[in-house]
Amino acid sequence: DAPKVPDSRRDSDGPRRGSLCDRHCAAINNAQGDLGELGCHLHRPRVPPATSTPSCCQQHSEEVCESCVVKTTLTAENAVEANKLSNNYKFGFKKWKSHVTARPWEDRSEIVKELYSDLNIVRGSGGSTLTCGNVLYLLLFGWWLSLLYVLVAAVMFITIMGAPYGELCWDLAGYFLWPFGKVIQKVEVPKSHQACEAGVGESSALLGGPTPLRWRPRCWVGTGYWHHASTAAWLCLGYPVLALAHGLVCVTAWLLVVLIPVAKLSARAASRVLLLPPQRLLIRPLRTTEVPLEGEVILCCYRAANPYYYKYAVDGINVFAVNLLPLVLVTLVLGYVDSPNHLTGSAVKFTLALLSIMPLSYYIGMAIASISAQSNFAVGAVVNATFGSITELTFYITALIKGSREGNRCYAEVVKSALTGTLVGCVLFVPGLCMVIGGIRHQEQRFNSRSAGVSSALLFLSVGGVFAPTLFSKVYGKLVCGECHNVTQNPLGHYLCHNCHFDLMDNNGTLYYSHVQPLVYTVSILLPAAYLIGLFFTLKTHTHIYDIHISDCHMPGHHHSAVVHWSRWRALVILLLSTLCMSACADLATEHISPILTNSTISQYFIGVTVLAMVPELPEIVNGIQFALQNNLSLSIEIGNCIAVQVCMLQIPILVLFTIFYPTNFTLVFSDLHVYASMFSVVLMNYIFMDGKCDYFQGTVLVMVYFILLAVYFFAPSPSGC
User: Fold this and answer.
1) From the CB of residue 324, how many other CB atoms can be counted at a distance below 10 Å?
2) Which one of 82, 351, 408, 425 is separated from 339 by 20 to 30 angstroms, measured CA to CA?
3) Which helix (H) or strand (E) is 367 found in, with range?
4) How confident is the model over 47-94, as pLDDT tens digits?
5) What is this structure's pTM?
6) Phi and psi of 615, rounded to 5°?
7) Phi/psi zone of residue 109: left (φ > 0), alpha (ψ -120 to 50 degrees), beta?
8) How far, in Å, CA of 125 to CA of 298, rounded?
9) What whole-number distance in Å separates Cα of residue 343 and Cα of residue 333?
10) Region 491-503 average pLDDT
11) Which CATH number fits domain 316-485+500-548+558-715: 1.20.1420.30, 2.60.120.260, 1.10.260.30, 1.10.8.60?
């Protein structure tokens, strides 16, 4: 359709908002983050308002505006978030979606507000309480918790002096069996105890009628000594057992995440309800036709489960990272205390150490993002360069050190497999999975083809440089085979040879030390230099290719000061502690991987390419999926590209530099399988990203190719020397 005639009154002060191309730009550059849902696309121009261009396509409104296709828009709620996004994006390192500042309460959705609300809000109509989550609570906690209250009530009645608490436990037994649609209130008791003397037929001025007996506040049987004796009996016999039970329920429900409302319910019951005098508590079912009694509402729960609790955060930390933090402590204690493997075997300790890397990588990323957000670009670049790849490098270096001490070449081969697996996974699996999941919600997704082209060129350069020594050794190396058999019984016939490899140490290692090793050092210098040139290209001379804008929504509620979750010093302390724990977990993983490599029937290639390569990248995979669901595929693709570029241009040169000061078995000569898999992956990725748009089918192709390569690694024989 032809665009409408612009309104001079509306367009006199700025660009047109209703043209076809502007709507196309808005569809392509869908705002990132939660504010993108509000439809805010107010970009901060790079030029003064008086000289800013009115629109991207005023002359040819029916044509697709190329500048819109290659535009990358970053949205932020405040200056700190904008600084975090800008620094991390420009420097080209991993993107962490988590906010480093506390978001205003009024800006959050109703779903998120419900997650953080206390269980003391009485709704007008809560709907039916018979839900799957509530039934799950009954089966997991409700029946035995209610039975425990009945037993404690019997004990309190036997002590006689604890009878008031026995009556309370009896009522709480019915409450915790099915707490949904019921309310616990704290009521005020008159000083003259008129409520106890009025009898059963006392009138309620609020309800206008007699108060039922089960709704009346409980009364003390006596005062003075009897009061203190009753409280002492409760604190010695009843409260510890119930507090322990509620603590168990709280921890279990919190670890299940979706049952966090049950955890809040148990925590408040143990810390508030059970510590109040019985006559101050009132338990009653809540009906919509009744008016609640006067008094503070302590507990009022309608749902035991909420699937949206995966968004829940504690002080800016995602709930899954909080739940996995005790796993790190268990891993360290079990690994260093039970070194003879009396309690658990090496396989269990290796698995725990590998799983502990996931929350630690999350904390390291959050600390990097927090420091970068509160610092200038130079500090953010230094922090990213220093700690951006600390997770992978820690494991690789500890594995190489252990292999060097034991004289085992297997560790060096596993490190090479992990490097190749990270490269292949981030080029194929991460963007492919993001395309599939994002394509389910969006029929076609577009991304910044120019920036993807720059990343693809860097990948071609880095892969070619990394595998140049390998290709050189294939051309000039001497093929040596371990065992050969004549299959035709003819001296001039065909021979079948096993365990063949190119020997670089022929003639006292002249080929390796005089030719291959200098080439390795040259490549290790050129690759970081090429990466710095790429940064200079994107940051200084050709910034228009990226056209980064920091969007700012000028809406009510957005004029607020940023409240940072972690200060710079706190983030620095967390970063150092997480790095220290990461080193310990990597040491445990390399310590207990040897039995797995020697006793497992699976190829060492497959273990390195899958487990060791992709587990540390799980937080990045989650980030990429979240960006793809928001129709922001550019960041999803660049997450994988940035990691792949880091592997080739930073991690491998650092490992080569490490071998200079600490000699290991690591040489920059890869097997043929690694070379072919990496080359094919980069070529396929560049072909898919050529047109700047994709759908779920193209993502499926990338994922399927990745699984085919995994099958090849699974059936491949173990590398020589293992």
Assistant:
1) 18
2) 408
3) helix 346-373
4) 333 333 444 334 443 333 444 444 455 556 666 766 666 655 555 444
5) 0.72
6) -60, -45
7) beta
8) 18
9) 12
10) 64
11) 1.20.1420.30
